[in-house]
């Protein structure tokens, strides 16, 4: 009886001493939170991190400070967060390729996206726009995806397309289309998406899956949009079909920016951060700022994890089929 009483008293004491989930969430954060960004200041990931960080920091009463550690397609920052203390004070803001592509492309990667990170939510999603140059005599009559595929089949292995480099999403999007359509194209890798855009305007290549910087050029008539790479149409180009609508069901490749924490971060902290980021992204004033980087898109942690798993598998298959090697 005495032993039982002592055991019960010990359990009661431990329960009293342990903070409840609600209490832990209310105390967090008690100091500044660092947001690690694996890309240079001014880029899409950096811009999104600063917009969201400012709003979340104001609501939670502590600064959310962006720290840029650019290099290796975001791997330097991702590795830093993967091995950081899981105390809620180190966050990762990154793009899709850091999570879904690097593990497939690079042998020396020192983090595991599934095992090392707890996904919070995406914030923006930006489809790629498949474009041709209407002033190029070779593409003047290409007005649909079907036209592009027919031209490629008429001259197998002769039509060149551009991308921002080996293994980036624009490269994989075109290779996926080629695989689904049964066509062979020539890949011309440029040093970045902006350079590939210059390439198609200069008529060096015939087609490009361009980022959203293509939208003003499409509206100005400098480029012709054939399709967008996402599952849904782009509000800025409502008359442009998706690749899926153009005859290739299931085609869905988008550039997204999202947030992660180290895997062992306490659940109440993860819940607080998820809710605050979602609340920030849905605020009209914040959403307007985020609109310059893509379409606001938030997910539950479970849906985010499922999206990552699906994209990782699909992109790995594209990489293997096309024998794509990282630069």
Automatic annotation (TrEMBL):
Q: Name one Pfam family in it.
A: TctC
| Signal peptide residues on this chain, from the entry's feature table | 1-25
Q: Does the keyword Lyase apply?
A: no
Q: Which keywords does UniProt give here?
A: Receptor, Signal
Question: Can you tell me which family this protein belongs to?
Answer: Belongs to the UPF0065 (bug) family.
Name of this chain's protein: Tripartite-type tricarboxylate transporter receptor subunit TctC
- Provide the taxonomic classification: Bacteria, Pseudomonadati, Pseudomonadota, Alphaproteobacteria, Hyphomicrobiales
């Amino acid at each position: 009886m005495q032993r039982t009483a002592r055991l019960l008293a010990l359990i009661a004491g431990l329960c009293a001493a342990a903070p409840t989930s609600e209490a832990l969430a209310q105390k967090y954060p008690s100091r500044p939170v660092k947001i690690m960004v694996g890309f240079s200041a001014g880029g899409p990931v950096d811009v999104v991190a600063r917009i969201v960080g400012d709003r979340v920091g104001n609501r939670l009463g502590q600064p959310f400070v962006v720290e840029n550690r650019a290099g290796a397609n975001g791997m330097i920052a991702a590795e830093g967060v993967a091995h950081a203390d899981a105390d809620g004070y180190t966050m990762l803001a990154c793009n899709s390729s850091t999570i879904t592509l690097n593990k497939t492309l690079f042998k020396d990667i020192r983090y595991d996206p599934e095992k090392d990170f707890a996904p919070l939510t995406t914030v923006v999603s930006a489809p790629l726009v498949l474009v041709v140059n209407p002033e190029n005599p070779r593409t003047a009559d290409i007005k649909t995806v079907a036209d592009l595929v027919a031209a490629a089949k008429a001259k197998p292995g002769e039509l060149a397309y551009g991308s921002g480099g080996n293994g980036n999403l624009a490269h994989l999007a075109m290779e996926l289309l080629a695989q689904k359509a049964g066509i062979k194209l020539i890949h011309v890798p440029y040093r970045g998406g902006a350079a590939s855009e210059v390439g198609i305007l200069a008529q060096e290549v015939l087609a490009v899956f361009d980022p959203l910087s293509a939208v003003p050029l499409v509206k100005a008539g400098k480029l012709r949009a054939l399709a967008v790479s996402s599952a849904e149409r782009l509000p800025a180009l409502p008359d442009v079909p998706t690749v899926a609508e153009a005859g290739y069901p299931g085609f869905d490749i988008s550039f997204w920016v999202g947030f992660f924490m180290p895997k062992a971060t306490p659940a109440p902290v993860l819940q607080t951060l998820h809710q605050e980021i979602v609340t920030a992204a849905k605020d009209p004033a914040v959403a307007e700022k985020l609109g310059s980087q893509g379409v606001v898109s938030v997910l539950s942690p479970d849906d985010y994890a499922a999206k990552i798993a699906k994209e990782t598998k699909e992109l790995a298959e594209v990489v293997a089929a096309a024998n794509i090697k990282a630069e």
